[in-house]
Each structure stands twice: as structure tokens, then as C-alpha cells.
Amino acid sequence: MLELDDHDLKILAALQENGRLTNHELAEQVGLSTSPCWRRVKRLEAEGAIRGYQAVLDQRRLGLGVTVFVSVSIERNDTAAHRAFEQAVLGRPEIVACHIVGGQHDFLLQAVAEDLDAYAQFALNVLGQLPGVREIHSSFVLKEVKPLLRLPLRRPEAAPAASRARLNRGASAR
Q: How far is Cα 43 from Cα 51, in angstroms, rounded to an integer?
């Protein structure tokens, strides 16, 4: 985990809110002069805390009115089968997220489509034909309550009191 101080966290929070801030605006917002702010941003980029900048698009206005979470089980639970499936998923723009999960299924996908008919065609003609797919279960989003736009940011020592208490009890028990 990266060592982040209060200025780093303020920079990350500000850029999560608005990635188009100029360095001058960012420095002013986080209470630094421009040169140290610029150096911190470059360090956060180099260390991978900031992986890039992108626009947040409105999928409905772009004609993608259906979001679906798809649980996928693979025929064989081996590395080659997983890799083949992962490679196939990477080439599908309709699949906007893919996670390997524990539990009943092997993968959890997030897919978008214009409408239910378009998703049905995608599920039957594409998802069901991906390498190693044994079964798929689709859950349709009725309403997005909280999209993933921002990560919670805090320093490790700022962990909730209950977490600190558990850690302290564990340390004193040794």
C-alpha cells in the first residue's frame, strides 16, 4: 500500500471529483503551491495511485438503457479455461467490467445493451458461446442508486475506531 499523507489524499479526492482541474486550481484547492502540487500528482501517477483520466459518460443518453450483472460458471475450473474466458471477455465492448469471484459462480460480469432484445441476442449469440461457459445467470438493474465514481480515501491510521480496537486487542493477545 502506498504511503499517503493528507495532501496526497486531498489531491486524490479533488481529482476524483474533477479530473479536469488545472494544476493551479488543484494546488489552490488542496493548499499547496503549484510546483509541489505538480510533483505530488506526477508521483501519484508514477506510483500507480492515479491510473489515468477519463470522461464519465451517460450510458442512457448514448442509447445503452440496459445494465446487466451476469454470473458465469465455467465448465472446467483450471487456469487454461479461465484464461481463455478472460481473453474472450477482453474483446467484448458490451462487457464493461469482469471480476473473478468466489462462491457459486466463477465470474461476475457487468454488461450494457440498448434494450432487452439486444441483451437477449448478446446473451444467446455471444455470452453463451464464449470459451468454457457452462451456465450464465443474468440480473437486470432496475435502478442505479450509487454508481462507482469515487473510492473512499483515508489514511490507514484513520481507520474506524472499531477496527483499531480489534487490531489493538489482537496485538495485546500475543
A: 12
pLDDT tens profile 134-170:
999 999 999 999 888 778 888 766 545 544 444 444 4
Architecture of the CATH domain 1-56 = Orthogonal Bundle (1.10)
Range list for CATH 3.30.70.920 in the chain: 66-140
Q: What is the CATH number of domain 66-140?
A: 3.30.70.920
pTM of the complete model: 0.78
pLDDT at residue 160 in the model: 53
Burial label, 68 (beta-carbon count in 10 A; 0-12, 13-18, 19+):
buried
Strands 66-74 and 107-113: antiparallel
31's grid cell: 493548499
What distance in Å separates the CA atoms of residue 37 and residue 99, rounded to the nearest whole number?
34
**CATH 1.10.10.10 in the chain, residues?**
1-56
Q: Are 134 and 110 in contact (CB under 8 A)?
A: no
Interval 41-59: pLDDT, tens: 999 999 999 999 988 899 9
